[in-house]
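A reminder from the course coordinator: this example appears on the midterm review sheet, so study it carefully.

Given structure:
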């Protein structure tokens, strides 16, 4: 939805969303727990990589999206 409104690729919006949620989670931990708990290197790596994987899969498997978008 946001990608359609902003006229940007879903994968770019996904990366921004993942990074912002990671930062918000880290800030909430720091505010309430006074330490980072549950936000580690895997979370940060996933936030940076998942959107790029979506972009690659969309580019290479775009012809198969009709299987996922079947209207019942």
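Designed residues:
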């Amino acid at each position: 939805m946001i990608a359609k409104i902003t006229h940007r690729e879903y994968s770019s919006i996904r990366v921004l969303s993942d990074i912002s949620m990671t930062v918000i989670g880290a800030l909430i931990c720091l505010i309430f727990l006074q330490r980072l708990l549950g936000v580690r290197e895997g979370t940060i790596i996933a936030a940076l990589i998942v959107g790029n994987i979506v972009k690659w899969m969309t580019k290479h498997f775009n012809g198969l999206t009709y299987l996922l978008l079947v209207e019942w």
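Residues 18 and 47 are 5 Å apart (CA to CA). The mean pLDDT is 85.
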